[in-house]
Write a structure and sequence with these properties.
By secondary structure, this protein is an all-alpha fold. It has 2 domains: 44 residues, Homeodomain-like (Arc Repressor Mutant, subunit A, Orthogonal Bundle), CATH 1.10.10; 147 residues, Tetracycline Repressor, domain 2, CATH 1.10.357. Helix content is 70%, strand content 0%. The longest helix has 23 residues. It is globular, with a radius of gyration of 24 Å. One of its GO terms (molecular function) is DNA binding. Keywords: DNA-binding. InterPro entries: Homeodomain-like_sf, HTH-type_TetR-like_transc_reg, HTH_TetR, NicS_C, Tet_transcr_reg_TetR-rel_C_sf. It comes from Piscinibacter gummiphilus.
Length: 225
């Protein structure tokens, strides 16, 4: 009897694309756009260069998809926060805690943002998805700010975009520059205890800034005897 020919494994396009994207995130985060090599990406993904070009067009197209992927994870998880019915200040601090934790867990996001900023966001400009992702998050934050202002529990003059960038800045700098700052100040900024103190200080600063202005009652005039 003739020996049956071995069947080729069935292709899974979604799995192949996801594998290339995962490998590309690691490669670009480690080496930046200029240093990353497509040959290394397909080697990591255990596929071939033809598949990379088939799904992403070219290196530029792949890099834009990488940026969209890491930022989509951040945005998707932010929007899953259940802060709609919380006290406004608690909701904002919950968002801050999430941002702090997300940047701590995802060094690839920190690295990719740093590399892309050095390149003046030339690849981010090609993405229409990334600006669209930001709108719902700012809407969520703005809703908390408006509700807090109406209730009198938050100061009324806060812009959602300014506040969001402030929160990200308080988180990002101490994590993205942890090695240089540790060396400059001879302090282990990677230590969990140091990161915890930094987070607590940032929360206290946010709480103080968000508080409504104190109302000072005018001193009563004494009647002349």
């Amino acid at each position: 009897m003739p020996t049956p020919t071995a069947r080729r494994p069935k292709r899974d396009p979604a799995k192949t694309r996801a594998g290339i994207l995962k490998a590309a995130v690691a490669e670009f985060a480690a080496k930046g756009y200029s240093g990353a090599r497509t040959e290394q990406i397909v080697k990591r993904a255990k596929t071939n260069i033809r598949m990379l070009y088939h799904y992403f067009g070219d290196k530029d197209g792949l890099y834009v998809c990488v940026l969209e992927e890491v930022l989509a994870k951040l945005r998707t998880e932010e929007l899953q926060l259940d802060v709609g019915g919380t006290v406004p200040l608690d909701g904002i601090l919950q968002m801050f805690d999430f941002i702090d934790g997300h940047f701590a867990r995802h060094p690839e996001l920190r690295n990719l943002l740093a590399f892309e900023n050095l390149n003046r966001a030339q690849h981010l400009k090609r993405s229409t998805r990334i600006p669209e992702m930001a709108t719902p998050v700012l809407g969520l934050l703005d809703g908390l700010l408006q509700r807090g202002a109406e209730e009198g529990s938050l100061r009324p003059d806060i812009d959602a975009l300014h506040l969001y960038i402030t929160m990200v800045s308080m988180v990002y700098y101490s994590k993205a520059h942890v090695f240089t700052l540790s060396r400059i100040f001879a302090e282990d900024l990677l230590a969990p205890e140091w990161q915890q103190r930094q987070r607590e200080q940032a929360r206290a600063m946010l709480t103080a800034y968000l508080a409504p202005p104190a109302t000072c009652s005018k001193p009563s005039k004494r009647k002349a005897k």
